[in-house]
Design brief:
CATH class of the largest domain: Mainly Beta
Helix content: under 10%
Number of strands: 27
CATH architecture of the largest domain: Sandwich
Distance between the termini: 47 Å
Structural class: mainly beta
Strand order of the largest sheet: 1-21-18-23-16-13-12
Number of helices: 1
Strand content: 35-45%
Shape: globular
CATH topology of the largest domain: Jelly Rolls
Length: about 350
Amino acid sequence: MNNKLIKNIKPLGFTWVTNDPFLFCVHHRDLYPEGNDQMGPAASLSGRNIGQDFSEENDWRMYHGHKVPGFPAHPHRGFETVTVVLEGFVDHSDSNGSTGRYGNGDVQWMTAGSGLQHAEMFPLVHDDKPNPLELFQIWLNLPKANKHVTPYYNMLWSEDIPKHQIKDEQGKVSEITIIAGQFDHISAPKPAPDSWAANEENQVGIWLVKMEAGAKLSLPAASADINRSVYFYKGSKITIANTKIKPYNSIDVYANEQTSIINSNENSYLLILQGKPINEPVVQHGPFVMNDEAGIRQAFMDYQKTQFGGWPWQNYDVVQPRDKRRYAIYADGREEIR
């Protein structure tokens, strides 16, 4: 291992270990069957721990859903969620009155800030064929100064997210989907306004990379204080600094050095997270992330008192009609349809 380029290599579990300013990442890959009349799985749920179905022994899970897979209403405070849906759909509803359906390359950026409830359900919209789902949810911390900002929710639609192709000297192609930050001087759509990513000096990057078999890609150098992690989640093998790496491993690399990734004989898929660390204490208790225990206690008291605005929807597991297109309705009444 070249210690001048690689800090460490770690296997990936159900949740992925991240570095400041990120809190964690989870990769959901579920091979859901056809949907029933309620857009749940047209299959037996016998033997599953309904409401807490996280078993990795099965090729799909209900998570906290009872009829439709997903995560019914739950609160957050003090950080952001960035949800990247590669395949399938997510129905969003929150306590500010925002709602929508997104998927197949769309990204939702939500700043929980002072407190927000939201539901994330995975409707199985197809009743005549399988409904595979693949997504990442990335938690990005907020600095102390922004822990109590006004909650914010915005969609980054797939059509608006840059997909930058780079050919190496052999003509092999790597495609970089730039969700946050810059890559090769190409910028992502603007992040949430109070995000750590909103300040370009923090060099926050969220990049999805697809490398053609045999391709070589150089990651541009950043500042020495930037944390950069490469998550190799699908493929056969990649090589970094003469170190051969198998899939489902993360590689922390020194960001101030240009790092070359060499792919093997099949397509490889990577998620790259980078950013300047916030360098503040992190105290997390479930859905709340603050700087100290007092902040956590206050979050629980505030939630018990205010429910972070209450829940304006009839059900905690809101699912849109089967034929609904990708769309978003925001708390200020704005509507986007795709």
